[in-house]
């Protein structure tokens, strides 16, 4: 009998053996908050990164917010904007939310 728990990691959208990593992103559920080790490492890297676009993880992060962080009167997109503001308040040098929106949309429709 194994005590390993299999999860669906909503950051990389794959099934993984859970190694007790949880996301630091807001408003996730018990189910969506469990992430795989690799995504936990990526998340830490992004949080240290000075520029969310240059981190190379923008689209995965945005998709996760859209999918898992909405609810209770706020959409995932609104929570993503709050996340960008939080980063800015902490001295990060991300592009403006408008520029980031444009980068996300370009990727989705190209
Ligand atoms: Zn993952």
Label this structure with key terms.
7% strand, mainly alpha, 110 residues, two-stranded antiparallel ribbon, binds zinc ion
Question: What topology emerges from the helices and strands here?
Answer:
Blueprint lengths: L5 E4 L4 E4 L19 H12 L9 H11 L7 H14 L7 H12 L2
Helix pairs in contact: 2-3
The chain binds zinc ion.
The site of zinc ion has 7 residues, from helix 1.
Q: Please write the string of helix (H) and strand (E) elements.
A: EEHHHH
Question: What is the terminal separation in angstroms?
Answer: 47 Å
Number of helices: 4
Sheet of most strands: 2 strands, antiparallel
What's the number of domains?
2
Please tally the β strands and state the result: 2
- State which percent range the strand residues make up: 5-15%
Question: What is the overall shape?
Answer: globular
Question: What ranges have pLDDT less than 50 throughout 5 or more consecutive residues?
Answer: none
Sheet with the most strands: spatial strand order: 1-2
Helix-residue proportion: 40-55%
Rounded radius of gyration (Å): 14 Å
Bound molecules: zinc ion
- SS-based structural class? mainly alpha
- Give the mean pLDDT: 95
Overview of the molecule:
The chain has 110 residues and is mostly helical. The protein folds into two domains: 1-48, no CATH class; 51-110. It has four helices and two strands; from the N terminus they run E-E-H-H-H-H. The chain has helices at residues 37-48, 58-68, 76-89, 97-108; strands spanning 6-9, 14-17. It has a two-stranded antiparallel sheet with strand order 1-2. Strand 1 and strand 2 form a beta hairpin. The protein is globular. The mean pLDDT is 95. It binds zinc ion.
């Amino acid at each position: 009998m194994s005590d390993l728990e299999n999860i669906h990691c909503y950051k990389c959208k794959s099934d993984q053996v859970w190694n007790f990593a949880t996301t630091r992103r807001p408003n996730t559920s018990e189910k969506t908050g469990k992430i795989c080790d690799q995504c936990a490492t990526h998340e830490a890297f992004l949080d240290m990164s000075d520029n969310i676009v240059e981190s190379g993880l923008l689209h995965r992060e945005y998709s996760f917010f859209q999918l898992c962080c909405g609810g209770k009167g706020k959409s995932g997109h609104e929570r993503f904007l709050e996340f960008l503001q939080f980063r800015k308040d902490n001295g990060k040098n991300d592009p403006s939310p408008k520029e980031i929106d444009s980068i996300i949309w370009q990727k989705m429709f190209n």
